[in-house]
Amino acid sequence: MSEQNADGSAGDADYGTIGAGYSSYRRPDPRIAEAVHRALGDAGTVVNVGAGAGSYEPAGARVTPVEPSRAMRAQRPAHLAPAVDATAEQLPFADNEFDAAMTTFSVHQWSDLAAGLSEMRRVARGPVVILTCDPALVRDFWLYDYAPLVLDTEARRYPAPGDIAEVLGGTVTVERVPIPADCVDGFNEAYYARPERLLEPGARLACSAWSFVAADVQESYLAHLRRDLESGRWDERYGALRTLPHWDGSLVLIRAVP
Q1: Which among 39, 10, 76, 66 has a CA at the least distance from the CA of 208?
Q2: Would you list the DSSP string of 78-121?
Q3: Mean pLDDT throughout 110-114?
Q4: Which of 40, 101, 200, 222 has the most other CB atoms within 10 Å of its CB?
Q5: CA distance 156 to 160
Q6: 15-257: CATH number
Q7: Distance CA 198, CA 188 (A)
Q8: Across residues 65-87, what is the average pLDDT?
């Protein structure tokens, strides 16, 4: 059984503490949603594991969300199905109960990756779809020059796509998903062209990796970024990113079919 925090959060981050304003900064981006929904195909029933506030759940399917955190379950909009209180490692469903299984920005939170992936494969007849980040690409982002421990944390926590594919088996594809310049899903790389947003406490709080870095260290990182933005040094080094309509970062979509 996976360990849980006081609010029920499974894994190493306590969403009772960091998830209060999550839905304000982490909204589903329609262009990323299109990629997720395309991967799900025509699935009529979908289980969404680590469902959080409901991002990327397909409107045309009957979705069963699973979310262990009370804080995150409470942020689900009224028009979405209420989430089942359970963890990825122990899904309370029958074998092959769903047409498909999905999870977005969640696998790095699980205490037992192989168990969670095996459970997703067990309950889904068709595709298992995972939106996550490739740890081999995480440090390629400019933020590594300002907040190295934040991205070191992300790289440590995200499982490699090859490891995910090995557990799921079957036919697996890994697709890099372009990140739009005006992405409304505020993970760190969503601000590749809007560095000022990362000075907002809510934006950082919605990216769990920041919670693993001591407050004084965070302040030194932010001071560095703020200085470079005010002096123009950030724009001298990275300003060309402001003109890119999208960026190929570490975001990947993994799809496995039996």
Answers
A1: 10
A2: TTSPPPB---GGG--S-TT-BSEEEEES-GGG-S-HHHHHHHHH
A3: 96
A4: 101
A5: 10
A6: 3.40.50.150
A7: 8
A8: 93
Residue type, 240: A
Are residues 22 and 53 in contact, defined by beta-carbon separation less than 8 angstroms?
Answer: yes
The answer to which of 13-17, 24-28, 157-161, 205-209 has the lowest mean pLDDT is 13-17
pTM (whole model) above 0.85: yes
pLDDT band per the 50, 70, 90 thresholds, residue 21: low
| Residues 6+ positions from 13 with CB-CB distance below 8 Å | 5, 109, 208, 211, 212
Amino acid at 91: L
User: How do the domains of the chain map onto residue ranges?
Assistant: 15-257
Would you call 140 helix, strand, or coil by DSSP?
Answer: helix
216 — alpha (psi -120 to 50), left (phi > 0) or beta? alpha
Q: What are the contacts of 148-153 at 24+ separation with CB within 8 A? A: 149/212, 149/213, 149/217, 150/188, 150/207, 150/209, 150/210, 150/212, 150/213, 150/221, 151/188, 151/209, 153/209, 153/212, 153/213
206, amino acid identity: A
Amino acid at 146: Y
Which of 186, 175, 236, 213 has the alpha carbon at shortest distance from 39? 175
The two tokens of residue 222 are 């932010």
